Input
Amino acid sequence: MAKKFNIDPDITKASTLPSSFYKDPDIFEAIKQKIFYRSWQWIGDSHKVGSKGTAYPFVLLRDFLEEPMLLTKDKGGEIHCLSNVCTHRGNLVISETGSYKKLICGYHGRRFSLNGNFEHMPEFKETKNFPGPCDNLHDFPIRQWGPLLFAGLSPEFDFQTVIEKMDQRVGFMSFNKLVHDPRRDKDYVINAHWALYCDNYLEGFHIPFVHDDLNAVLDYGDYETICFDHCNVQIGYAEGSEDVFDLPEGHIDHGKNIAAYYFWVFPNMMFNFYPWGLSVNLVQPLELHKTKVSFVTYVINPEKLDKGAGTGLDKVEMEDEAVVEGVHKGIRSHYYKAGRFSPTREQGVHHFHSLLATFMNRESF
Output
C-alpha cells in the first residue's frame, strides 16, 4: 500500500513531511506521476516560435520526465504544444528547430499539420477504422502570460488562476518589453533532493542567518508570505526607499517600499520580480540526491540592474546551496524524523508540504 502523508492544516499544530519523503527511492519515482504529470511547467518564451510556421522540439524535464514535446506556431499565429512522438511507431517527428509547412515523420512519412492533426500516411489505404483521434499528435494544455509559456501533461488545476494571482502584483510591469539576457543565465547542480531546495526558497526565516548582503537591503521584520491555491508570494520590503518598485496608483501595494516579489508556483517554479525585471528559477529533479536549478534572466529596466534585492544572485545561490546540501545530509540521520513549522515565518513551507501531501495521497493514473 502506498504511503499516506498528513500535514495538519493548522500550522501551529503541524509537523513537516517525514524524512522518508526525501530518502525513499519509491517515493521519488511516485512523484513523477502523482505530482509532475499533474501540474504545470514553464517551457520558455514565445520567441522560441517567433514566426508563423516555426516548430521547436524540446524535452520536458530532461533526465526526469523525459517527455518529447514540440512547440509550433501555425499559419494563423496560434501557438501549440504537441507531443513530438509519431503516432505510427513512436519515432520523434522532428529533431531540429526550423520553418515547416507540415510535420512529417522521417521514418515512414506520416504527415501532420502544425496544429498536430493527422493528414496523410502512405500505404494505409486498406487499414480499417483509420484515421482516428489517436492518430493526431497529442495536444497538451498551454497557457501564455506575456511572452512566458506554460504547459501541462495532465494538469489538475487551471494555470490561469495562477497567472491572475501573479498579475495582481506585477501585471503593471511592461511584459512586452521583457528581453532575455542569456549572459546572465546559469545552471547549478545541487547534491540534494529537489523539494529541499523549494523548502529553503519558501521562507525568509533563514535570511538573517545565511544571507548577509540580502539581509542588508531587506526589512526582515516586514517580510511577508501570502498563500493561494497553487502558488504563493513572498514580499520583500526594502530598508529604504531606493531600489524599489514604482507602483502605480490603485495597485494593491501602492505606497509600500517593495524591493522584490518572490512568486513560487507548485511544484518547482520560482518567478522573482525586481525593479529591473525577472529571474526565472526552474528546479529540475535529476536523481534522489541531485537537482538542477536553472536561472533565466529577463530585463525590463537595465539601468536598475545590480542594485537592491536583485543583485548578487550568484552569491545568494551559493549560500542557499550550502544550506540545502547540509540539510540533505542531515535528514539522513536515523534520529531525525520530522520538524515543526514556525507559524510566523514558514507559512510557505507549510503550504508546499500540504500540497505535496494532497497530490501524493491521490491514486496513480
Summary: The longest strand covers residues 277-287.
